[in-house]
Input
Amino acid sequence: MREAAFVKQNRDKWQEIDIQTKEKDIPAEILADNFIELTDDLSYARTFYPRSQTVKYLNQLTGRYFINIYQYKKKEKGRFFRFWKEEIPLIMYKYRRHMLYSFFSMFAGVLLGIFSLEQESAFASQILSPGYVNQTLENIESGDPMAIYKSSDEAPMFFGIATNNIGVAFYAFVGGILFSMGTVYILFSNGVMLGVFQYFFFKKGLLFTSAISIWLHGTLEISAIVIAGGAGLILGNSILFPGTYKRIVSLQRGAKDAVKIVVALIPVFIVAAFIESYLTRLTEMPVYFNLTIIGLSALFIIWYFIYYPYYINKKTNETTTKDQVISKP
Output
């Protein structure tokens, strides 16, 4: 076979493998199959086209794949810890723009909620329900605006809130299958509710009082919903924009990463539900205690889901570059 025919026959396969060498999480079976394919092609090229550019290219590609296999062997040890230490941060970095789009979708809803309530005071009852609004007005009159959080026993409230919040995150994720539109709707509608909720208390002169209670749990809860929405956008965009992959392959890859994000959010929702059920009801707590919990929650979200992904991505790239330099003859 002529070299040109050999290259034409295998070009698409090599390009696909070349793309995969840049991925951080390739299944072991794919690594093994591709490495066998590459070594077979490299052996053939060395036999029939020695000193050609094809041999040089395949040699470099095989070398990069060997590094991936070596790294995979190291990573399989401590799989649970690697999931939290490397896998989730790298996925968050990879899809950082999706998270930003998710935030903007919810923030747009917040702005609309504020604007709508400013235009029509009855809008609060339509969004938050007449029963909730009337009960809150009574609580404000009695001097305990946040007493609504004392209306249920702690344990049932905890399980109910945790289940509800995880359900919202799940729907925000699954909504992505509707070409991202379902996710955007859930984010936007929750944003409207949040905007109305906070602006309702602002109009009553209780913005600070409500904020230090609501954001006690809301810092984790709202952030997690935004991140879950980002996972939904990953799912939807994998269908809309498959890139060089077949659409079904792109969907499988996007769904795999998105599911990992949703799983990682479950502990966050559980902690948020615990705070809302057991701490938010303590409306007599000192302000500095509330602010400390809000600050620690915000620091955790910013560190683990924003800063740490940048750090671990940079560290991983430096390690990969170092390994490639060492592997060169």
